[in-house]
Amino acid sequence: PFYLITTLEEKLKLLENCGVDGTLVIPFSLEYSKVTAEQFVFGFLGQKLAVKKVFVGHDYAFGQAKQGNSDYLISSGAQLGFVVEVIDAIKIGAHIVSSTLIRNLILAGDVHSVFKYLGRWYNISGTIVSGRGRGAGLGFPTANLSPERELLPPAGIYAAFAELERKRYMAALNIGEKPTFADYTFTFEPYLLDFKGDIRGKKINILFVEKLRDIVKFDGPEPLKRQIAADVEKARTILLNNMENNE
């Protein structure tokens, strides 16, 4: 399945932060998928928008069956009076930066490497819902999150930053089941360090920094409690070392 790295709302916000004055969003539909490359360039870019300059990626393809490419766009632009700038591929180390690369890193749980290629921490937003209260019983009250998108890192314990009501907190995050309690419900639970308060019903944004470990079944609550305490301190150390990227 194809999972979005960034929601439309997030994309619009990122563009706004880059200084873009306005964005035209075209809803994709079956009808729109049948628009040919010629119709798009001459009818839309040329006639409707009367563009002066177009920027595209090095592997850009458009139109029905991806029949148009940057060469076609450049030649058409010469006829219509606009110029085209093709953005070269960006390479970091041995890898060309692409959504496929970033998506695969997220799905593999290598969220720390994502920052290098995405330019920011991968984030997931959602609304806090009521849980079973097991975290509070162990001394680590967690917030149960209902994620707004499907692209989740694999099950495990993560160090993360949490954005809540315009403030950022350090957090340890549990994604997955709770085999110690024979609870195989998939949950998404951040524990906000040094925070007290009821945040049920509020929206929270989680920024993934590093995976700490996999989910493990413990012999009982006490060994689990000791491990959670260790996880929290490890998360604190990692997050303090990444504060310069917490912008």
- Low-confidence spans: pLDDT under 50, at least 5 residues? none
Tell me the helix content. 25-40%
CA-CA gap between termini: 31 Å
Q: Over all CA atoms, what is the radius of gyration? A: 23 Å
- Give the tally of β-strands: 12
Assigned CATH class of the domain at 117-245: Mainly Beta
Architecture overview:
This protein has 247 residues and is α+β, with helices and mostly antiparallel strands. The chain has a domain at 117-245: Elongation Factor Tu (Ef-tu), domain 3 (Beta Barrel). It is 32% helix and 29% strand. The protein has 8 helices and 12 strands. The protein has helices spanning 8-17, 30-33, 37-48, 70-80, 99-108, 111-118, 134-137, 221-241; strands at residues 53-57, 61-62, 68-69, 83-87, 91-92, 95-96, 123-129, 144-147, 156-164, 167-178, 183-192, 203-213. The protein has a 6-stranded antiparallel beta sheet, with helices on one face. It has a two-stranded parallel ribbon with strand order 1-4. It has a two-stranded antiparallel ribbon with strand order 2-3. The protein is elongated. The two termini are 31 Å apart. The relative contact order is 0.12. The model has no long low-confidence stretch (mean pLDDT 90).
